[in-house]
Amino acid sequence: EPCGRERAGTSIHGLLVGWLEETEPPPGATVLIGTGEPDRRELAERLAAGGWRPASFVHPTAHLAPSAEVGAGSIVGPGVVVGAMSRIGEQVVIGRGSLVGHHTEIEGFATLGPGANVAGNVRIGAGAFLGMAAVIRDHVEVGEGATVAMGAVVVGDVPAGTQVRGLPAR
User: Fold this and answer.
1) For 33-75, how does the pLDDT look when each residue is reduced to its tens digit (9 = 90+)?
2) Which residues have CB under 8 Å from 141's CB, separation 6+?
3) Segment (H or E) for 165
4) CA nearest to 90, candidates 126, 115, 139, 116
5) Domain range holding 44?
6) Distance in angstroms (rounded) separating the CA atoms of residues 153 and 167
7) How many structural domains compose the chain?
8) Where residue 24 falls among pLDDT bands split at 50, 70, 90?
9) Less CB within 10 Å around the terminal CB: N or C of the chain?
10) pTM (2 decimals)?
């Protein structure tokens, strides 16, 4: 459902909608950040400094294995599947229809675009970005701050801070 400024003061899935520029949450409030990078990290730091607690949101149509963990402030979108023993760090955004395999670790502030497919035993570094429909093979590491382009197929490690694209991704 759309969530523009006209939704301020209403709720979505039981969460009150508002903008920090216009309304400051009461002290100790639980807050969900609904934006992506680069603003997400800055807002999370601002909220932490103000004493607010990060809320996480898992869409009702997402499926998380009972052994999967989701960190504070993370958003797991509609139709997402997260496999057994996987760990989603803090302030991670996983877009609709993405698949996260078993024993996968996604570190804080990473973003998976809609339809990303991450196999098992993968490590996604902090702040990494996977574009829409990116595919990551099993036992691969995507380094901190790396970018994987939309539709790329990653079959080997991606060094921190680099950008890859294509089939296979380079």
Assistant:
1) 887 767 888 889 888 888 888 989 999 999 999 999 999 999 9
2) 122, 123, 125, 157, 158
3) none
4) 126
5) 5-54
6) 5
7) 1
8) confident
9) N
10) 0.89
Tell me which H or E stretch contains 49. helix 39-49
Residue that the structure tokens 């803090």 belong to: 90
CB 111 within 8 A of CB 118: no
56 contact partners, CB below 8 Å, separation of at least 6? 32, 70, 71, 72, 73, 74, 75, 76
Question: Has residue 40 been placed in a domain?
Answer: yes
In a domain, 34, yes or no: yes
Q: How would you label 34-49 residue by residue, b for 16+ Cβ within 10 Å and e otherwise?
A: beeeeebbebbeebee
113, 93 contact by CB (below 8 A): no
Q: Is 70 exceeded by the pLDDT of residue 137?
A: yes
Longest Cα–Cα distance of the chain, Å, equals: 49
